[in-house]
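ASSEMBLY PREDICTION REQUEST
Request ID: AP-0331
Submitted by: J.K., bench scientist
Number of chains: two
Total residues: 325
Priority: normal
Notes: Please return the full assembly, not individual chains.
Input sequences:
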Amino acid sequence: MQLIKEVADNIAGHKGVILNARTAERLGVAEGDLVEIATPKASVRAHAVLRQGIRPDTLLLLGQFDHWATPFAKDFEMPSMNKLVPMSLALTDATGSGADVVRVSLRRAA
Amino acid sequence: VTRWAMVADLRRCVGCQTCTAACKHANSTPPDVQWRRVLDMEVGEYPEVRRAFVPVGCMHCADPPCMHVCPSTATRQRADGIVTIDYDLCIGCAYCAVACPYQARYKTDHPSFAYGEAMPSEQQGFDARRIGVATKCTFCADRIDAGLAQGLVPGVDPDATPACVNSCIAKALHFGDAEDPESNISKLLAENQFFRMHEELGTEPGFYYLWDKRR
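STATUS: Completed
Returned structure:
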């Protein structure tokens, strides 16, 4: 697990949330800053990963499943998208894919 | 003469990091030491942006700055172009790590393992001579030498080929003899556009990147 985490970290986004670099600049968010991503029902915190190759109005969370108990993995501080996305059968298609998209707010965490 | 060299096709690399993992397994490198690494780069600004995955590591330069600054003659060059480090001669000054324009050299001062205590696999691969000295990609010289002794062809026969090249899922990494005009990599270099990293420094890297220049 350590090795997989180590090599995965070479790919942008495994250390937090990917957001457009210009959007981040407008919001006063710098690389590595802790930000809070929130819906009316839930929020997660993540370190900002600034990239050019993403829409200015979109955030990307690679992690979906969270780790709360697994030794080692629970300390990755990898933000989980499932905490934000509502679990709704009505939004789940026949292949089992959910609607992994949700409107959120973003602000620098205090 | 033989000149072992690597070719990375940047049009094919998908950034999967399998070469990095394969290298770590084959060479038992400790955490955060990556003799083979793949950079995740972006070129341009949104929306005119392209992503490029760039495998890097020791370039096995024909004129290696690391060798010139080495005060103990630990870093040397084989006749076949592979740049070597003699762990018994290395005094750990790390001049080479500073001199290398490719950030290819590592130095580990203390034994380190994935979860604190060494796992059995880590104990097996642990080499005490690597502590406190410079280390880097060897082009898997031991695999090349063992393969050649069996009459195998490096870059063609997996048993004689660097672990990263064997592991590549996208056929992006290639290895072979750059001096042999009939070799696999000579053909790739003849048929494609290529560049070498920091060519302007005159280090003459033995690592070529295939890439279509934009018109």
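REVIEWER COMMENTS: The mean pLDDT of chain A is 89.
SIGN-OFF: pending second reviewer
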